[in-house]
Amino acid sequence: MILHILTKAPDSSAATQMQQAIGEHDTVLLIEEAATAALDTSWAAWQQCQSRIFLLSEDLTSRGLAGIAANNELPTLEMQGFVALTEQYEKTVTWY
Amino acid sequence: MAPPDALLVVIRHAPHGSNWLREGLDAALVAAAFGQPVQLLFMGQGIMALLKEQSSGAPGQKATLPTIDMLEMYDIDKLWVAEGGLQSMNLSADSLVEGATLIADKEVPGLLHQHTKILNF
Amino acid sequence: MQYGLLVMGAPYSSPAPHSALRFAHALLSRGHQITGVFFYHDGVHNASSLMAPPQDELNLREAWAELNQQHAVQLDVCIAAALRRGLMSESEAQRHGKQSYNVAPPFELTGLGQLLELQQRADRLITFA
């Protein structure tokens, strides 16, 4: 099982490549520019990884997207939660 | 199947666009020189690193192909190419260097899972 | 757990170094250790002692140095990536006939092998780029 970290927007080639690489039991964390995924609930990865995909809340807050993510009922994690995910997943791959 | 403790280096950037490709390949070569089994996966623009018609461009543009040719000497003989990426770039397999092996997109997650270590460039 | 961090983004060009620092402090607060931080690609710019951001911005070089002072975290910089981008220690500057240098302890110039060793030694390697 792999933790995939995306740092670029959902329409980036990094995002497309990550989506190709996600396995059935993998988890996804969206940080930095990937926080803009909060704006697009129709992004395929939301369905592809249902209940295994999270937004980093402080990157949402700094970009003014926290309220939108909450309204869209998207799952978020604090930095502590980020660390907790890396504890669970032996391998992490960052897509940038 | 990848040998235990194998390193997968993922290459996603084209030659000449940035230094990601060069520095990614350097990491693969150093790992192999240290005796670690290494495989490469080329995705998206990274596939361009394998185009066999690459030749010397303008003076001062360091070519990538000599490094690709060196991989075999370092026992890096698995050069996986994600098929969908090849198709979406309108490239055919015979435009690539010898030794490139196509892998179906749906096999990519499995390839990542087989490797205990991954570096993504 | 032992963590290794790979930082490949330049300060003030990429958010990667800042994310890496926040992650570093969070993992330490959860009782983990950092085996080392490896700076590669544009990440080598984090080591520049000549960076002088405005006062209201975090000085990332100093933030890394603080992490080293407080938690004895090793800060390794890929020498090949550094030299081609104009980052060098005093001894490298002498070797290359340069008038000045901008990499000093706690940052150490080292080979790429150090990254692979870090990946072998640490329980986790997290990339920030």
Automatic annotation (TrEMBL), chain A:
One of its GO terms (cellular component) is sulfurtransferase complex. GO terms for biological process: tRNA wobble position uridine thiolation. Pfam families: DsrH. Signal peptide: none annotated. It comes from the Bacteria. Coiled coil: none annotated. This is Sulfurtransferase complex subunit TusB. It comes from Halomonas campaniensis.
TrEMBL record, chain B:
Pfam families: DsrE (PF02635). Signal peptide: none annotated. NCBIfam families: PRK00211.1 (NF001238), sulf_tusC_dsrF (TIGR03010). Belongs to the DsrF/TusC family. This is Multidrug transporter.
UniProtKB/TrEMBL annotation, chain C:
GO terms for molecular function: sulfur carrier activity; sulfurtransferase activity. Gene3D superfamilies: DsrEFH-like. The keyword Cytoplasm applies. It comes from the Bacteria. GO terms for biological process: tRNA wobble position uridine thiolation. It is found in: Cytoplasm. GO terms for cellular component: sulfurtransferase complex. Its main location: cytoplasm. Pfam families: DsrE. Belongs to the DsrE/TusD family. This is Sulfurtransferase.
